[in-house]
Amino acid sequence: MKKIIALLLALVMVFALCACGETKTEEQPQTEEPETEEVVVEEPTTEEPTTEEPATEEPAAEGVMTYAEFDAAEMDTEVTVETYVQAHQSWWDGKVTVYTQTPDGAYFLYNMACSEEDAAKLVPGQKIRVTGFKSEWAGEVEITDATFEFVDGDTWIAEPVDITADWGTVDMIAHQNQLVSFKGVTVEAYDESGAAFVYKNAEEKTDDLYFKVTIGDTTYEFCVEYYLCGSDTDVYKAVENLQVGDVIDLEGFLYWYEGPNLHTTAVIVK
Hints:
This protein is mostly beta strands.
């Protein structure tokens, strides 16, 4: 009996030792490495900054004159110029008379060959290339027997130049054919009738108006060119309403006929 008890105690001791030798290991949670998005670092570029050259005026086409070259040319020689339309008279029978200008000077294109369709395109600012002959009539320098072509690109419209200070001096002719203005001139009686103006065509409203204006001791005869500013225009009506003694400002193209003869485009009574 004692042996049996001893054997049982021995077995109990063995089981106790086995239980103490086991180690409980909890499964460690798996930690995943965080995903890292690949970052592509671009090397900074070191391109030279681009700088645009300022626009420069296109050189004149071969054979095209500057205004200085035109001015120096002999009369009755062929000339070619590039210029900008400022106004034109009525088209008639395949021809049109055009007032043109550049920043350097002005050209009067007398009876230039032109279709009626193209005449409608001769709007202020339009650039054209003109070939004709430098001519003179009663002091007016013009281009006659001319042909032209349109030039694409820039446009330009002149502002009137105030040449009141040049009134009665030789300096006025330097502005021939340009758009100019005169300030504070006085309306004079046109003739012994005492009228402030006259119609060219026996008092019919179908032609030019003429009037005279004075600064100091110098008087000039100016006109409203009917085919430039007809009887329905403000300037034509303004001259019809002038009174002797009125002080007025004028604008127009400085045409020349035995002296300055403004082709008037605006009249302002003071």
